[in-house]
Amino acid sequence: MIVVTGATGNVGRPLVRALASSGEKVTAVSRRITAGDVPRDVRVVRADLARSADLRPAFEGADAVFLHDGGTSAEALHPGDILDVARSAGVGRVVVLSSQGVRTRPESHSHGVLMRSLEEAVRRSGPGWTVLRPGGFHSNAYAWAESVRTRRTVVAPFGDVGMPTVDPADIAAVAALALREDGYVGQTYELTGPALTTPRQRAEVIGRALGEPVRFVEQTREEAHAQLLTFMPGWAVETTLAVLGDPTPAEQQIGPDVERLLGRAPRPFDDWTRDHVAAFR
Question: Is the pTM of this model over 0.70?
C-alpha cells in the first residue's frame, strides 16, 4: 500500500489518480478529505500532519509514503515525529516533496532552512528516501483565476521575468516512479518545466485558451508585497518576491530530470492551461 499525504493538493491529487489507475492500493490523507475527492477503491484518512499521532491509522500496513506538507505550515510540522510513526508502521520508502530553494536559497527561512530540515529528517529516518525539489508550479496561475473570470485581467509583478514552472502532474509522475520502483532510492531530483515563461506570456496563454484577450497589469514590488502579506508571513513574502523578481541563474535553469525520468519532455504551461481552463471561465 502507498500513502499519499496532501492528497487533495495540486501534486497529491494527480498522484493518487496515477497510482490507483496502475493498480496500486492507495491511502489518501488530507485534513478534510472525503471519498468524493478520490477514485473509487482509494482509502481515505482525515489527518493533520501537524499532529503526527493522527497518522498512525493511515500508515499501518503501508510500504511507501509520499510526504508533502498538504498546506500545513512548515513551521508547525515535526518531520522527525512523522517519520517515527512511519518507521514504526514498517514503511520502507519515503518520497518527500521539498523545494528547489534548498539549493538556490539556502539562507531563506521558508525555501531553504525549513525544507532542508525536512530533507535531513527524511535522510536520517531509516526508510529508503527520495527527494523531489521542484521550482514554481504551473498551477500557481490559479491565483489569477478570480480576476480572469470577473475582469479578464491578470495582475502580477515582474511581468517580463521568465521562470521554468513545472506541471504538478509531472511532479506526480516522477513521485509515482520513486514510490513504486527501486532505482530512485537515495536520489535528489530537481524538477522544472521545459521553457522559461513570463507572467505576461502566461496571461496571453490563458487568453488563447479562453478564446478572448486577457489583459496583463503589472504590479509594483510594493503593491505585490502588500498583497502577499494578506496570506503569507513577512519572511516568506520577501523570499517569494526575490525569487520572482531577481531569480538566480540556477532558478532559471531548465533541468533535465523530468525528461530523463519520464522519457518525454516536461509538459508546457500551454498544455496545463488547456487542461484547467474551466477554472478561468
Answer: yes
